[in-house]
Hints:
Blueprint: H1 19-35, H2 38-41, E1 62-66, H3 71-76, H4 83-94, H5 101-104, E2 106-110, H6 130-147, E3 151-155, H7 157-164, H8 169-172, E4 177-179, E5 182-187, H9 200-232, H10 239-243
Parallel strand pairs: 1-2, 1-3, 3-5
Antiparallel strand pairs: 4-5
The protein binds iron/sulfur cluster.
Amino acid sequence: MIGSPPIVVPPPLDAETNRAERERLLAALHREQEACDRCVVAGYLPRADSVAGYRGRIGDRVMLIGQAPGHLSVERRMPFSGPGGRILDGWLQRAGFPAGALHAEVYISALTKCDPGKAPRGGGDRKPSPAELALCRPFLLRELELIRPRAVLLVGGMAIEAFLGPRKLTETIGTSVERNGAHLLPLPHPSGVSRWLNAPAHQALLARALALLAGWREEWEAEDRARERRILTPQFYSEEERHG
Ligand code: SF4
């Protein structure tokens, strides 16, 4: 993000830690975002509709950060509700998630929460300006602080740059970075406007990225199974008695 230092991800938190309070604060944050018109007041947007720019729950282990919602998301009042969302859901399925996980298990957010409109010279959606990114950034930081994901999917060059600094897609897709115990996973944008995924070599990089995500998901499922076993078989003897 030009002019701003990379976003620092806070350490992951278990879903049940302060859950009720986090849910209360997240609902309040969502209401605040819905009422926000900072970019309209500043003259950057003709209208603000942030409902399209976020969706999710406390307890979602994966958080996805896109650039900004597009017009389809605004019409349907849901982020990634068009073809890009179907592609992303397909990528999640390749990583072992069930169909529909994008909207059922992943907290979806974006660098800016309102539709920036079309790019003036065509070629898809307009990129939010550094000033818009700066105005909306506090909302994203507060979402991160409340969701505390285990993995953050950075979708597209702008999201990757906001968290990791400027990087070439070919050098970063297929790799991951760990920050404060959370995995950051760069992904290409699924938009049909981007030609990047047409190259077989780039598809191979995407496959490597999805394999990383699949591995984390397997770890989380193993943790869940271990936790369930502990709940099903509560300890009767003390640790000293059990282990001597
Ligand atoms: S993009 Fe963000 S800061 Fe700008 S009006 Fe929408 S919610 Fe507010």
